[in-house]
From TrEMBL:
SUPFAM superfamilies: HAD-like (SSF56784). One of its GO terms (molecular function) is hydrolase activity. It comes from Medicago truncatula. Keywords: Hydrolase. The keyword Hydrolase applies. The lineage of its organism: Eukaryota, Viridiplantae, Streptophyta, Embryophyta, Tracheophyta. InterPro entries: HAD-like_sf, HAD-SF_hydro_IA, HAD_sf, Pyr-5-nucltdase. This is Haloacid dehalogenase-like hydrolase.
């Protein structure tokens, strides 16, 4: 006689979920199917807090002030120039570098963000609870600098809701020999100063590309100068962020308030959520008035957490000793 052990499947087995009992096939699928997403990638400004806070408007004004006070740009041109640079380069900072201005990045960020009305932001416990309940990797992806990102998240009470922050310094690691893809190093790569201070932040007029005059022509000839800055909505910036964080674009959900950033994300394979309007646009898989509408708009995001809520009822399969 020889004895052996095996797991018997002849005993009755049933489990229940939120909606009731699951049959055997549903039980198998429940434990074998992967969630649709591995990671939720969030923009910061005007996405995790509303546009009505006034920070975006203040940021634009601060950029104009910096251009006039520190770069000696004619106040009569600063407003138009700010608009054209943002439209054509993704950020005003990237545009200023493209057309020939030299300045210290840390100084500009400190000037522009240091004067923002952070007092308009308040802790958001509702958003915090929602984010903490989502069973995925969660990352911030912003064009802003690390100081602003940290301060904003801290005020909102969300500083520990995210695994890491991909920011200006992450995407523009000047003076680094390589970009780390270590997940533990996602937060704030490339913290070294990205340009050396110059004796003057202004530049001679002969060195500056006149983008206003160029675009005012009926048929502008040539192409605009390229910027050394990597930022959204560049597809290269999004692909770099995905590489740094080791993300599969087809298993990542991207949250943004910018239509052009949403469309760029869609082009690289991301599923996308436009925040700030309920009107869907080309490139947006979902459109929400507020990030707070997420549970109602995409309830499936919480289904990935179903396994932790499974309740077993009845008799389970048990190890049985048999004689053969």
């Amino acid at each position: 006689m020889q004895t052996s052990s095996f797991i018997s499947s002849s005993m009755p087995l049933s489990i229940t979920n939120r909606s009731g009992s699951l049959n055997e096939m549903e039980f198998v699928n429940l434990f074998t199917q992967k969630p649709k997403y591995d990671c939720l990638l969030f923009d910061l400004d005007d996405t995790l807090y509303p546009l009505s806070s006034g920070l975006a408007e203040a940021c634009r004004q601060n950029f104009k002030d910096y251009m006039e006070e520190m770069l000696c740009i004619d106040p009569r041109k600063s407003d138009n120039l700010c608009t054209l640079l943002y439209k054509n380069y993704g950020t005003t900072l990237a545009g200023l570098k493209a057309i020939g201005y030299d300045f210290d990045y840390d100084e500009l960020h400190s000037f522009v963000h240091g004067r923002l009305p952070y007092v308009n932001l308040k802790p958001d416990p509702v958003l915090r609870k929602m984010l903490m309940s989502l069973p995925y990797r969660k990352l911030i992806f912003t064009n802003a600098d690390k100081v602003h990102a940290l301060k904003t998240l801290n005020i909102l009470g969300l500083e520990d809701c995210f695994e890491g922050i991909i920011c200006f310094e992450t995407l523009n690691p000047i003076h680094r020999s390589s970009v780390s893809v270590d997940e533990d190093d996602i937060e704030f790569l490339g913290l070294t100063r990205t340009t050396k201070p110059t004796s003057s932040n202004s530049a001679s007029s002969s060195q500056i590309f006149d983008i206003i005059d160029h675009l005012a022509q009926t048929n502008p000839s040539g192409i605009l100068p390229k910027s050394p800055i990597v930022c959204k909505p560049s597809e290269n910036a999004i692909q770099l962020a995905l590489k740094i964080a080791n993300l599969d674009p087809h298993r990542t959900l991207f949250f943004e308030d910018s239509v052009r950033n949403i469309q760029a994300g869609k082009r690289v394979g991301l599923d996308t959520v436009l925040i700030g309007t309920s009107q869907k646009v080309q490139g947006a898989d979902y459109a929400l008035e507020s990030i707070h509408n997420l549970p109602e708009a995409i309830p499936d995001l919480w289904e990935a957490d179903l396994k932790s809520e499974v309740v077993y009822t009845g008799k389970l399969a048990v190890e049985t000793t048999v004689t053969a």
